[in-house]
Amino acid sequence: MASLTLNAQPLDIALPGDTPLLWALRDAANLTGTKYGCGTGECGACTVLVDGQALPSCTLTLDEAEGRSVTTIEGLSRLRDHPVQQAFAAEQAIQCGFCTPGLVMAAAALLARNADPSEAEIAAALPNICRCGVQPRLIRTVQRAGRILRGQERGLALPVPATATTPGL
Question: Would the pTM count as exceeding 0.85?
Answer without folding.
Answer: yes
